[in-house]
Specification:
Shape: globular
Helix content: 25-40%
Strand content: 5-15%
Strand order of the largest sheet: 7-6-8-9-10-11
Distance between the termini: 27 Å
Number of helices: 11
Length: 318
Protein backbone atom coordinates (compact mmCIF):
# COMPACT_ATOMS: atom_id res chain seq x y z
CA UNK A 1 0.00 0.00 0.00
CA UNK A 2 1.27 3.45 -0.96
CA UNK A 3 0.51 6.32 1.39
CA UNK A 4 1.16 9.96 0.51
CA UNK A 5 1.24 12.74 3.10
CA UNK A 6 0.59 15.96 1.20
CA UNK A 7 1.25 18.75 3.70
CA UNK A 8 3.26 17.49 6.66
CA UNK A 9 4.46 21.04 7.38
CA UNK A 10 1.00 21.89 8.72
CA UNK A 11 1.24 19.02 11.22
CA UNK A 12 4.38 20.34 12.89
CA UNK A 13 8.02 19.30 12.56
CA UNK A 14 8.01 17.71 16.00
CA UNK A 15 5.41 15.10 15.04
CA UNK A 16 6.76 11.59 14.47
CA UNK A 17 5.26 10.35 11.20
CA UNK A 18 7.43 7.22 11.12
CA UNK A 19 4.52 5.41 12.82
CA UNK A 20 2.91 5.33 9.36
CA UNK A 21 5.67 3.08 8.00
CA UNK A 22 4.03 0.04 9.56
CA UNK A 23 1.12 0.49 7.16
CA UNK A 24 3.02 0.54 3.88
CA UNK A 25 5.28 2.61 1.64
CA UNK A 26 5.08 6.23 2.78
CA UNK A 27 5.95 9.40 0.85
CA UNK A 28 5.97 12.59 2.92
CA UNK A 29 5.91 16.09 1.43
CA UNK A 30 6.10 19.38 3.31
CA UNK A 31 3.45 20.74 0.97
CA UNK A 32 2.21 20.41 -2.62
CA UNK A 33 0.94 22.76 -5.31
CA UNK A 34 -0.94 22.60 -8.60
CA UNK A 35 2.28 21.88 -10.49
CA UNK A 36 3.25 18.73 -8.61
CA UNK A 37 0.28 17.34 -6.74
CA UNK A 38 -1.09 15.21 -9.61
CA UNK A 39 2.27 13.54 -10.13
CA UNK A 40 2.66 12.87 -6.42
CA UNK A 41 -0.72 11.20 -5.99
CA UNK A 42 -1.14 9.41 -9.34
CA UNK A 43 -0.06 5.98 -8.01
CA UNK A 44 -0.99 6.30 -4.35
CA UNK A 45 -3.60 4.25 -2.52
CA UNK A 46 -4.08 6.58 0.43
CA UNK A 47 -3.78 10.36 0.75
CA UNK A 48 -3.26 12.02 4.11
CA UNK A 49 -4.18 15.69 3.84
CA UNK A 50 -4.69 18.51 6.29
CA UNK A 51 -5.43 21.79 4.52
CA UNK A 52 -4.75 21.38 0.78
CA UNK A 53 -7.73 21.62 -1.55
CA UNK A 54 -8.52 18.35 -3.32
CA UNK A 55 -11.08 19.08 -6.06
CA UNK A 56 -11.98 16.73 -8.90
CA UNK A 57 -9.31 18.18 -11.20
CA UNK A 58 -6.57 17.17 -8.75
CA UNK A 59 -8.01 13.72 -8.00
CA UNK A 60 -9.07 12.66 -11.49
CA UNK A 61 -5.72 11.11 -12.47
CA UNK A 62 -5.16 9.31 -9.15
CA UNK A 63 -6.34 5.99 -10.58
CA UNK A 64 -5.25 3.83 -7.63
CA UNK A 65 -6.70 6.10 -4.97
CA UNK A 66 -8.92 4.31 -2.49
CA UNK A 67 -8.94 6.50 0.60
CA UNK A 68 -8.41 10.13 1.64
CA UNK A 69 -7.69 10.68 5.31
CA UNK A 70 -8.08 14.21 6.58
CA UNK A 71 -6.06 15.35 9.57
CA UNK A 72 -9.02 17.43 10.69
CA UNK A 73 -12.68 17.23 11.61
CA UNK A 74 -13.70 19.52 8.76
CA UNK A 75 -13.76 17.92 5.31
CA UNK A 76 -14.54 20.96 3.17
CA UNK A 77 -11.13 20.84 1.37
CA UNK A 78 -12.17 17.62 -0.42
CA UNK A 79 -14.68 17.19 -3.25
CA UNK A 80 -16.56 14.51 -1.34
CA UNK A 81 -19.28 14.13 -3.98
CA UNK A 82 -16.69 13.27 -6.61
CA UNK A 83 -15.04 10.82 -4.23
CA UNK A 84 -18.35 9.11 -3.61
CA UNK A 85 -18.89 8.78 -7.36
CA UNK A 86 -15.44 7.17 -7.68
CA UNK A 87 -15.90 4.98 -4.58
CA UNK A 88 -13.01 6.74 -2.85
CA UNK A 89 -13.46 6.67 0.91
CA UNK A 90 -13.06 9.94 2.83
CA UNK A 91 -12.38 9.88 6.56
CA UNK A 92 -12.08 12.74 9.00
CA UNK A 93 -11.00 12.69 12.63
CA UNK A 94 -13.36 13.77 15.38
CA UNK A 95 -12.86 14.79 18.98
CA UNK A 96 -9.06 14.74 18.85
CA UNK A 97 -8.65 18.53 19.19
CA UNK A 98 -11.48 19.38 21.59
CA UNK A 99 -9.15 20.10 24.50
CA UNK A 100 -6.79 22.19 22.39
CA UNK A 101 -9.42 24.30 20.59
CA UNK A 102 -11.51 24.92 23.69
CA UNK A 103 -8.36 25.96 25.55
CA UNK A 104 -7.53 28.63 22.97
CA UNK A 105 -11.15 29.79 22.85
CA UNK A 106 -11.15 30.48 26.58
CA UNK A 107 -7.67 32.02 26.39
CA UNK A 108 -8.82 34.47 23.72
CA UNK A 109 -11.95 35.40 25.67
CA UNK A 110 -10.02 36.05 28.88
CA UNK A 111 -7.29 38.01 27.08
CA UNK A 112 -9.80 40.25 25.31
CA UNK A 113 -12.01 40.77 28.37
CA UNK A 114 -8.95 41.72 30.44
CA UNK A 115 -7.32 43.83 27.68
CA UNK A 116 -4.29 41.63 28.24
CA UNK A 117 -2.50 42.49 24.95
CA UNK A 118 -2.58 46.18 25.87
CA UNK A 119 -1.27 45.61 29.40
CA UNK A 120 1.50 43.40 28.07
CA UNK A 121 2.49 46.03 25.51
CA UNK A 122 2.43 48.74 28.18
CA UNK A 123 4.92 46.77 30.24
CA UNK A 124 7.13 45.54 27.38
CA UNK A 125 7.41 48.99 25.86
CA UNK A 126 9.05 50.33 29.02
CA UNK A 127 6.13 52.67 29.66
CA UNK A 128 5.43 50.99 32.99
CA UNK A 129 9.03 51.48 34.09
CA UNK A 130 8.99 55.12 33.05
CA UNK A 131 5.66 55.77 34.77
CA UNK A 132 7.13 55.57 38.31
CA UNK A 133 3.70 54.29 39.39
CA UNK A 134 3.11 50.86 40.94
CA UNK A 135 -0.21 50.24 39.24
CA UNK A 136 -1.78 50.92 35.88
CA UNK A 137 -5.44 50.07 35.26
CA UNK A 138 -6.24 51.60 31.90
CA UNK A 139 -7.96 50.54 29.72
CA UNK A 140 -10.74 49.60 32.09
CA UNK A 141 -11.49 45.88 32.19
CA UNK A 142 -14.37 43.91 33.68
CA UNK A 143 -14.83 40.63 35.46
CA UNK A 144 -16.05 37.73 33.36
CA UNK A 145 -18.26 36.48 36.19
CA UNK A 146 -21.96 36.89 35.36
CA UNK A 147 -21.37 37.79 31.71
CA UNK A 148 -23.42 35.94 29.09
CA UNK A 149 -21.42 33.61 26.84
CA UNK A 150 -23.20 32.54 23.66
CA UNK A 151 -21.94 29.35 22.06
CA UNK A 152 -22.79 28.69 18.41
CA UNK A 153 -22.50 24.95 17.82
CA UNK A 154 -22.65 22.29 20.53
CA UNK A 155 -20.31 19.59 19.34
CA UNK A 156 -17.44 18.29 21.45
CA UNK A 157 -15.64 21.65 21.39
CA UNK A 158 -18.72 23.75 22.04
CA UNK A 159 -19.62 21.61 25.04
CA UNK A 160 -16.13 21.89 26.49
CA UNK A 161 -16.23 25.67 26.10
CA UNK A 162 -19.66 25.73 27.76
CA UNK A 163 -18.31 23.81 30.75
CA UNK A 164 -15.32 26.14 31.06
CA UNK A 165 -17.51 29.24 30.72
CA UNK A 166 -19.82 27.99 33.46
CA UNK A 167 -16.77 27.38 35.64
CA UNK A 168 -15.81 31.02 35.16
CA UNK A 169 -19.24 32.11 36.35
CA UNK A 170 -20.75 32.95 32.94
CA UNK A 171 -24.38 32.54 32.03
CA UNK A 172 -24.13 30.15 29.11
CA UNK A 173 -26.61 30.14 26.24
CA UNK A 174 -26.24 28.19 23.01
CA UNK A 175 -27.50 27.92 19.45
CA UNK A 176 -28.09 24.48 17.95
CA UNK A 177 -30.53 23.45 15.25
CA UNK A 178 -31.61 20.34 17.13
CA UNK A 179 -32.65 19.94 20.75
CA UNK A 180 -29.94 19.31 23.32
CA UNK A 181 -30.88 18.49 26.90
CA UNK A 182 -29.09 20.35 29.66
CA UNK A 183 -28.39 23.55 27.70
CA UNK A 184 -30.18 26.89 27.53
CA UNK A 185 -30.84 27.00 23.79
CA UNK A 186 -31.73 30.22 22.00
CA UNK A 187 -32.41 31.16 18.40
CA UNK A 188 -29.39 32.73 16.70
CA UNK A 189 -30.69 36.30 16.71
CA UNK A 190 -31.46 36.21 20.42
CA UNK A 191 -28.05 34.77 21.20
CA UNK A 192 -26.28 37.48 19.19
CA UNK A 193 -28.32 40.29 20.77
CA UNK A 194 -27.85 39.18 24.37
CA UNK A 195 -24.33 37.69 24.56
CA UNK A 196 -21.27 39.49 25.90
CA UNK A 197 -18.98 36.80 24.51
CA UNK A 198 -19.81 34.84 21.35
CA UNK A 199 -17.77 31.85 20.17
CA UNK A 200 -18.31 29.82 17.01
CA UNK A 201 -17.79 26.04 16.89
CA UNK A 202 -19.39 24.91 13.63
CA UNK A 203 -18.16 22.97 10.58
CA UNK A 204 -18.26 24.75 7.23
CA UNK A 205 -21.21 23.52 5.19
CA UNK A 206 -23.60 25.08 2.68
CA UNK A 207 -25.87 25.90 5.64
CA UNK A 208 -23.19 27.49 7.83
CA UNK A 209 -21.30 29.46 5.18
CA UNK A 210 -21.69 33.17 6.02
CA UNK A 211 -24.03 32.26 8.88
CA UNK A 212 -22.60 35.18 10.85
CA UNK A 213 -23.50 37.67 8.13
CA UNK A 214 -23.27 41.46 8.10
CA UNK A 215 -26.88 41.58 9.33
CA UNK A 216 -26.14 39.17 12.18
CA UNK A 217 -23.01 41.09 13.22
CA UNK A 218 -25.13 44.25 13.40
CA UNK A 219 -27.23 42.55 16.11
CA UNK A 220 -24.27 42.20 18.50
CA UNK A 221 -23.76 44.45 21.50
CA UNK A 222 -21.14 47.18 21.25
CA UNK A 223 -19.34 45.55 24.18
CA UNK A 224 -19.50 42.06 22.63
CA UNK A 225 -16.43 39.96 21.96
CA UNK A 226 -16.58 37.60 18.98
CA UNK A 227 -14.38 34.51 18.69
CA UNK A 228 -14.13 32.22 15.67
CA UNK A 229 -12.05 29.05 15.97
CA UNK A 230 -14.18 27.03 13.53
CA UNK A 231 -13.92 28.07 9.87
CA UNK A 232 -13.28 31.53 8.49
CA UNK A 233 -16.07 31.46 5.92
CA UNK A 234 -18.70 30.91 8.62
CA UNK A 235 -18.57 34.67 9.21
CA UNK A 236 -18.47 37.78 7.01
CA UNK A 237 -14.84 38.82 7.51
CA UNK A 238 -15.25 42.19 5.79
CA UNK A 239 -18.17 43.05 8.06
CA UNK A 240 -16.22 41.98 11.15
CA UNK A 241 -13.29 44.20 10.17
CA UNK A 242 -15.65 47.14 9.64
CA UNK A 243 -17.33 46.50 13.00
CA UNK A 244 -13.93 46.75 14.70
CA UNK A 245 -12.95 49.88 12.79
CA UNK A 246 -16.24 51.56 13.66
CA UNK A 247 -16.31 50.41 17.32
CA UNK A 248 -19.51 48.45 16.74
CA UNK A 249 -18.18 45.50 18.75
CA UNK A 250 -15.55 45.41 21.49
CA UNK A 251 -13.11 42.88 20.12
CA UNK A 252 -12.48 39.78 18.02
CA UNK A 253 -10.36 36.66 18.44
CA UNK A 254 -9.87 34.77 15.18
CA UNK A 255 -7.85 31.61 14.44
CA UNK A 256 -9.39 30.65 11.08
CA UNK A 257 -9.74 32.50 7.79
CA UNK A 258 -11.43 32.07 4.42
CA UNK A 259 -7.97 32.62 2.92
CA UNK A 260 -5.10 30.91 4.77
CA UNK A 261 -2.74 32.54 5.31
CA UNK A 262 -4.64 35.76 4.77
CA UNK A 263 -3.06 38.16 2.27
CA UNK A 264 -2.34 41.86 2.45
CA UNK A 265 -5.61 42.48 0.61
CA UNK A 266 -7.67 40.54 3.16
CA UNK A 267 -9.90 42.78 5.33
CA UNK A 268 -8.19 41.54 8.49
CA UNK A 269 -4.78 42.73 7.36
CA UNK A 270 -5.73 46.37 7.95
CA UNK A 271 -6.79 45.74 11.55
CA UNK A 272 -4.14 43.22 12.62
CA UNK A 273 -2.42 45.81 14.86
CA UNK A 274 -5.58 46.94 16.61
CA UNK A 275 -5.33 46.42 20.40
CA UNK A 276 -8.75 44.74 20.61
CA UNK A 277 -7.92 42.15 17.97
CA UNK A 278 -6.22 38.76 18.42
CA UNK A 279 -5.29 36.87 15.28
CA UNK A 280 -3.57 33.48 15.50
CA UNK A 281 -2.31 31.31 12.59
CA UNK A 282 -4.89 28.49 12.63
CA UNK A 283 -3.12 26.87 15.58
CA UNK A 284 -5.97 26.27 18.02
CA UNK A 285 -6.20 22.58 17.10
CA UNK A 286 -2.45 22.03 17.34
CA UNK A 287 -1.44 21.25 20.92
CA UNK A 288 1.20 18.51 20.87
CA UNK A 289 -1.16 15.99 22.45
CA UNK A 290 -3.87 16.89 19.97
CA UNK A 291 -1.64 16.35 16.93
CA UNK A 292 -0.46 12.98 18.19
CA UNK A 293 -4.04 11.98 18.81
CA UNK A 294 -4.84 13.03 15.25
CA UNK A 295 -2.18 10.79 13.69
CA UNK A 296 -3.28 7.85 15.82
CA UNK A 297 -6.86 8.40 14.68
CA UNK A 298 -5.73 8.45 11.04
CA UNK A 299 -3.96 5.11 11.51
CA UNK A 300 -7.13 3.65 13.01
CA UNK A 301 -9.14 5.02 10.07
CA UNK A 302 -6.79 3.43 7.52
CA UNK A 303 -6.78 0.05 9.27
CA UNK A 304 -10.56 0.08 9.60
CA UNK A 305 -11.08 1.00 5.95
CA UNK A 306 -8.96 -1.85 4.59
CA UNK A 307 -10.68 -4.29 6.93
CA UNK A 308 -14.01 -3.28 5.43
CA UNK A 309 -15.12 -1.47 8.58
CA UNK A 310 -16.89 1.90 8.61
CA UNK A 311 -15.09 4.46 10.74
CA UNK A 312 -15.36 8.26 10.33
CA UNK A 313 -16.53 7.84 6.72
CA UNK A 314 -17.89 11.26 5.77
CA UNK A 315 -18.37 10.24 2.11
CA UNK A 316 -21.21 7.92 3.11
CA UNK A 317 -23.36 10.83 4.22
CA UNK A 318 -23.08 13.07 1.15
Amino acid sequence: MKITVLDSKTLGKDLDLSVLNALGEVAIYDTCNEDNIKERIKDTDVIIDNKLKLPEKELSEAKNLKLICLAAAGYDPVDVKYCKKRNIGVCNVCGYSSNSVSQLTVTMALALISHLPEYIDYTKSGEYTRSKTANHVSPVFNEIDNLTWGIIGLGNIGKKVAKAAEGLGCNVIAYKRTKEEGYNLKDLDTLLKTSDIISVHLPLTDETRNLISREKIALMKEKAIFINVARGAVSDEQALAEAIKNNKIAGIGIDVYSEEPFSETHPFYEIKEYPNVIFTPHMSWGAYESRNRCINEIILNINAFFKGEIRNRVDLYE
